[in-house]
Amino acid sequence: MVSDSQSTNTLGAQVILDGGNPRTFTAKALETISGGFLVNTSGATGDVGSQVSSYVAGDIKVLGAQDAKLCNGIALNNAGSNELVTVATRGAYLMRCAGVVSGGALVKHNASGNVLNWTAPGSTAVTVVQDTTIGRAITTSASGTANFALVSLNL
Predict the structure, then answer these.
(1) What distances in angstroms separate CA 112 from CA 15, 50, 98, one per listed residue?
(2) Which residues are CB-neighbours of 114 under 8 A, at least 6 positions away?
(3) Which of 37, 40, 54, 55 is the most exposed place for a label (fewest CB within 10 A)?
(4) pLDDT of residue 92
(5) Cβ-contact 62, 72 below 8 angstroms
(6) Cα–Cα distance for residue pair 135/81, rounded to 1 Å
(7) What is the pLDDT, as a whole number, of residue 1?
(8) Computed over its alpha carbons, how large is the radius of gyration of the chain?
(9) Higher pLDDT among residues 35 and 131, named by residue
């Protein structure tokens, strides 16, 4: 289900740099996905087999990343539920800020499609999944719905 709290760039995914070699994959949307949404994979055990010949784009399934511990990329196009969506794992994108973003700092997402500086977690057991870093800020920004930073994704 798409969250009302998804407040990503209203213009969709705005790619600035892709390094000349875009890194994307095609997946099936498990819900309505808008271009610019951060997404994570989901599905059941056994989504793929052992042979390349049995793989199809629909084997990978994605939904809006609403857990700060999970993210596999940014949707590049709009897709309805059960439609195909292209997901980028690398490149530099204009992203809305949910907190202070410092140029050069590692960034994470806030489970609502926005980015902020990643901070080191406290001491926890190694089996606990931590908030995921999704890339590094290229520009600096303050928090706010009208504030954006250029973020280099590295997922």
Answers:
(1) 19, 35, 9
(2) 7, 8, 95, 96, 97, 98
(3) 54
(4) 92
(5) yes
(6) 27
(7) 42
(8) 15
(9) 35
Six-digit token string for 142: 């303050």
Beta-strand pair 15-17/90-97: antiparallel
If you search the block for the tokens 């590295």, which residue do you land on? 154
Listed in sequence order, the DSSP H helices in the chain are: none
pLDDT in tens, 91-119: 999 999 998 999 999 999 999 889 999 98
Written as six digits, the tokens of 17 are: 């740099």
What is the rounded distance in angstroms from the CA atom of residue 132 to the CA atom of residue 113? Answer: 13
- Burial (CB count <10 Å: 0-12, 13-18, 19+), residue 13: buried
How many distinct helices (H) and strands (E) make up the chain? 0, 11
Q: Hunting for tokens 């890194």 — which residue is that?
A: 23
Rounded to an integer, the average pLDDT of 138-147 is 89
CA distances from 15 to 33, 64, 105 (A): 17, 19, 19
